[in-house]
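Postdoc handover notes: sequence design on the structure in folder B. Input tokens:
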């Protein structure tokens, strides 16, 4: 028996349904249900919230979320092989689990969820960063979610929480920390997964701020940051050449040395530059 509910242990579920993880889908399954429940707890009190989960696989984290009292879990799964195992969980938790087969990049979860909403997922490695950027850059803010509790490769997690001046500081850090409080909540060794990945993993918890830390147009800021870090070894006057006429003057007006490099700038400085670029664009 498992230790969080009366469903079979995950090893048995995987064996019964012949669920070998597929590299093409970025799958690495967590087997320890005590661990999945611990991850679920990082998302806070779930009793009055709906939870979006992407890539549930055999349902380890799904069971953790439900056992921790989630009001409802919407699980989006691309791999049809996992659906029978998820159906067994849905039967164990009547009315609390809805499973949609499909690609999370193509599905609007808001049609199936009632606010307040939180996101918790052991994201497939091949779409994790793209999904995070989408959740961080909606057309309006605050977003549909209160918080994101997400599993990433350790190096991606460190990029999300990185500080200016570090080698890991880049676009992800600016986009995440401009609008959220971001922290690494826990780390997991490769042997916690099957198959064991070559790298360690970490759970990142991001809490949406009511408003961004500093005023800036989201689209302009995103473009400025992308251009600056695409050529991070170059001085900003070169990396941002062609962004708007007179970029050196705009940098100086924002209080930035044209000879600075992207990794030296704080989020506040990037926002100041985005305001200057926006003004130049009219």
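Designed sequence:
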């Amino acid at each position: 028996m498992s230790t969080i509910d009366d469903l079979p242990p995950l090893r048995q579920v995987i064996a019964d349904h012949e669920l070998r993880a597929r590299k093409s889908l970025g799958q690495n399954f967590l087997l320890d249900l005590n661990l999945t429940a611990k991850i679920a707890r990082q998302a806070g009190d779930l009793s009055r919230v709906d939870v979006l989960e992407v890539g549930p696989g055999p349902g380890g984290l799904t069971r953790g979320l439900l056992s921790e009292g989630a009001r409802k879990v919407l699980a989006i799964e691309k791999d049809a092989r996992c659906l029978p195992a998820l159906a067994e969980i849905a039967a164990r938790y009547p009315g609390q689990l809805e499973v949609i087969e499909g690609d999370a990049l193509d599905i609007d979860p808001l049609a199936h969820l009632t606010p307040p909403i939180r996101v918790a997922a052991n994201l497939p490695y091949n779409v994790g960063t793209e999904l995070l950027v989408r959740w961080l850059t909606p057309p309006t803010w605050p977003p549909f979610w209160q918080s994101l509790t997400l599993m990433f490769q350790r190096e991606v997690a460190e990029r999300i929480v990185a500080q200016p001046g570090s080698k890991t500081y880049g676009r992800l850090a600016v986009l995440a920390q401009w609008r959220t409080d971001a922290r690494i909540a826990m780390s997991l060794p490769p042997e916690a997964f099957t198959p064991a990945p070559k790298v360690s993993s970490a759970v990142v918890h991001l809490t949406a701020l009511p408003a961004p830390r500093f005023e800036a147009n989201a689209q302009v800021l995103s473009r400025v940051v992308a251009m600056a870090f695409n050529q991070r070894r170059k001085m900003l006057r070169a990396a941002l050449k062609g962004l708007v006429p007179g970029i050196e003057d705009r940098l100086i007006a924002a209080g930035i040395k044209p000879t600075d490099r992207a990794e030296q700038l704080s989020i506040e400085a990037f926002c100041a530059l985005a305001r200057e670029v926006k003004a130049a664009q009219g």
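Context for whoever picks this up: The chain has a mean pLDDT of 94. Don't rerun without checking with the PI first.
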